[in-house]
Amino acid sequence: MDLTYTAEEAAFRAEVRAFFDSAIPEDTRRKVMLGQRVTRAEIIAWQRIVNKQGWVAPLWPVEHGGTGWDVVKFFIFREEMNRAYAPELLSMNLNLVGPVVLAFGTDRQKEFFLPRLRNADVWFCQGFSEPGSGSDLASLKTRAVREGDHYVVNGQKIWTSNGHRADWMFALVRTDPSAKKQSGITYLLLDMKTPGITVRPIVTLDGTHHLNEVFFDDVKVPVVNRIGEENKGWTYAKFLLGNERANVARVGVSKSRLAYAKMIAGQTRVEGGALLDSARFREKVALIEVELKALEMTNLMLVSAMKKAGAKVQDPRTSVLKLKGSEILQNITELLFEIAGPEALAYEEAFLSGREEASFVSRWNGAAARNYFQMRAASIYGGTNEIQHNVVAKGVLGL
To answer: How far apart are CA 227 and CA 305, in angstroms?
Structure first.
């Protein structure tokens, strides 16, 4: 693979870098750099800035707001966005439900949802996992019964990221309990303001509220909010999960986090000089850098292959990206936690007080523990790493 950038690509990088350097609100940039939590309003404001620039959904078709970039420009864009410490754009909107609506939605659904997804006028959450139906997603039990022009939904979802912030949910529900479990599932879009939906917080080990339980009690969902055909939802879910795992690699995020860790280590004094000068510490950094470079190359090769195969074809090698991407991010947060040392105890005050805002201390080390604990879940969400090993063994190695 030739990784030498052309003059056009170099000029494109300069354009993108100039945009990110000038367009990100400084308070927001600082929060991202320090690993602090960005508010809902700040995320929406940033996505609207990028949408106004016309870059918010690079991989969508041009007629629906895409850029027409090739894979090289897309990776330049992602790399520069992460380098500049920009907030992540709404992945649920742009990388998960958006491509599903594009590929399988009706014209009416595309007309209504796609502009709103790009501009963050709606915020989607994902309703897949259930108690007892996480890794074995096809065993889900949330039931939807059609009554005229509506489905009536009853059941429960769990581990719903940002369910308390979201306006809509894309959910898998069981519409034919007598069919084989993968064949009786339907994909619905639910307005979170619908009567009968209850959202309850789950406070996790990092001391914050970003996960939820969601309960459905006789919730009426219009049939027009169904994606594709009834009982074909598993097909659409597999398409979506391929996009999710490809994005979980998060190479750009890892590169910016690692660069930040090295900068902080250069300012952290230990016996004998700066921590960055320690042979033991430099060995840890080097091991992460080697794995990250291998992941980046794999990611580039895989996206190129998927582009040639077509947007609806999912490659089992996306599971490799999920596996290594999550492990590398965990290793980097552990490295930052180690750099913080005893000063990471600032986290304890926030955790014990029960006040999320207490974790917003003025220095980066106050977020080190929270980010470390939060990133423990990276090997679970998006399909557990144990399941991804099985996918790689079967789909890639042919075992």
So the answer is: 27
- Cα angle 76, 78, 82; round to 5: 115
Site of tokens 């992945």? 91
Task: Name the DSSP letter for residue 153.
Answer: E
- Model pLDDT for residues 181-230, shown as the tens digit of each residue: 889 999 999 999 999 999 999 988 777 888 999 999 999 999 999 999 99
282: its two tokens: 């430099």
Q: What is the DSSP string of 275-299?
A: GGG-HHHHHHHHHHHHHHHHHHHHH
Specify whether the CB–CB gap between 360 and 212 falls below 8 A.
no
Which two tokens mark 238? 């597999």
Separation between Cα atoms, residue 55 and residue 15, nearest integer Å = 12
CA gap 29, 376 in Å, rounded: 24
* Full-model pTM: 0.83
Nearest one of 266, 272, 307 to 285, comparing CA atoms: 266
pLDDT of 50-95, one tens digit each?
A: 999 999 999 899 999 999 998 778 888 988 998 899 999 999 999 9
What's the CATH class of domain 7-89? mainly alpha
Dig out the tokens for 8 from the structure.
Answer: 């056009």
Domain boundaries, the chain: 7-89, 124-232, 249-396
